Amino acid sequence: MDTLQERAILVGVHEQKDEHFEYAMEELKNLAEALDVEVVGEVTQKMERRHAGHYVGKGKIDEIQNYYEELDANLIIFNDELSPSQIRNIEQELNCKVIDRTMLILDIFARRAKTSEARMQVELAQLHYMLPRLVGLRASLGRQGGGTGGGLQNKGAGETKLELDRRKIEDQIAKLGHDLNHVKDQRETQRKQRKKSGTPVVSIVGYTNAGKSTLMNQLLKKMDGDNAKQVFEENMLFATLDTSVRKVELADNKEFILTDTVGFVSKLPHHLVKAFRSTLEEARDADLLLHVVDVSNSEHDYMMEVTNDTLQDVGVQNVSTLNIYNKADLAEIPYPKVSDNSIWLSAKEGKGLNELIELIKRHIFGQYTTCKLLIPFDRGDIVAFLNDKANVKTTSYEEEGTLMTVEMNAADRKKIEEFIISH
Ligand SMILES: Nc1nc2c(ncn2[C@@H]2O[C@H](COP(=O)(O)OP(=O)(O)OP(=O)(O)O)[C@@H](O)[C@H]2O)c(=O)[nH]1
Ligand SMILES: [Mg+2]
């Protein structure tokens, strides 16, 4: 397919109460560039509230039109999600291809999704978004354009040739919902099994591009050397869209499960959060969250706020959390440094990992207890089990059997209760 280079003008309304407007516009530019769209201009307007009919004030529409022609643009991207009537009205007035922040994010997700579950989740979000906007979108997407189009030119929604047919879209939504439920059940079963095994779960969460996958890889490398099964890390928005689950085994026979998942961004589309809910919910059952923050970004407080709000949105509450201030190498901050539940480190350089592991251990192995056991000589299986699963501190051979002092978790302890002689 012949793809025309897209040249976009960004349009944003700066509402009075919004303190993060400049950053939101900068992020919009990054999102556009993540789709190879060239940003050629920007129009902003200060208003008390966005205009219900056409997002910006009426006079601003003419200004956008002039700018559009002058800069030879072929696309206009709005900084917020446009309502169905806003899309229709702006379309009519401007007579050009119009997309909004939501379509942009959906499109990025559509391109990055790798597993079938992630693809289905994105497609579901796209269809939900499209359904009430068919009229406006039909006009907009019918126009000559390049790569972006609310995912319609991508695999997934695009290849199923829905032709914006309402009935077909509704059927497809129902089908995806059904298929996703099935995947969700499987995931639930796995989660339950993990829980039953008593192995603590540590989940990495945070804003997109904060360094979550880099941290996961470094932790795995530290344990398994270069044989570690790495996850994908990249300097781009939404490099990760799926949950990766790995087991981390520590030197003292303690182990935990580490998960990496999709990152957050401000104004994450509501339908996307909904579609990805089951992925995001994984964090709800975690024993500990590692909230990774790019401390070198001047907006990192805001990014933390967005992450916390999104987590709350999907019902992740009251899970103990460590704040990981990452990329300290790019900030003027001494590192590694630990203070209460916060740590400053550099995942990329691998500096601060030992301190982080200590901090993690302190949180998740709190329920570990030490006890003394006497195991008859004919129960070599128990001794082997303990050597494999527990942190064995002393072993001596007495007349009645093997005497061991071990530190272990509650689940394993239950299994060998009959051999405990003192605590
Ligand atoms: N300088 C520096 N760069 C880092 C550090 N940690 C990660 N990065 C870089 O930041 C970029 C993003 O890293 P990822 O690990 O992919 O980030 P992520 O949080 O998984 O991002 P998403 O999956 O997109 O949400 C990569 O280019 C990393 O090399 C760090 O400590 N210092
Ligand atoms: Mg990632």
Automatic annotation (TrEMBL):
Superkingdom field: Bacteria
Location of the protein in the cell: Cytoplasm
Keyword vocabulary terms for this entry: Cytoplasm, GTP-binding, Magnesium, Metal-binding, Nucleotide-binding
Binding site for Mg(2+): S213, T240
GO (cellular component) term, any one: cytoplasm
Residues at which GTP binds: 206-213, 238-242, 260-263, 326-329, 346-348
Alphabetical list of InterPro entries matching this protein: G_HFLX_dom, GTP-bd, GTP-bd_M, GTPase_HflX, GTPase_HflX_N, GTPase_HflX_N_sf, HflX_C, P-loop_NTPase
Any one Pfam family match given in the protein's UniProt record, by short name: GTP-bdg_M
Domain called Hflx-type G: residue spans: 200-368
GO molecular function, one term: metal ion binding
Main location: cytoplasm
Cofactor(s) this protein requires: Mg(2+)
PANTHER family (UniProt xref): GTP-BINDING PROTEIN HFLX, GTPASE HFLX
Its biological purpose: GTPase that associates with the 50S ribosomal subunit and may have a role during protein synthesis or ribosome biogenesis.
Family statement: Belongs to the TRAFAC class OBG-HflX-like GTPase superfamily. HflX GTPase family.
Binding partners and assembly: Monomer. Associates with the 50S ribosomal subunit.
NCBIfam families: GTP_HflX
Name this protein carries in UniProt: GTPase HflX
Origin species: Filibacter tadaridae
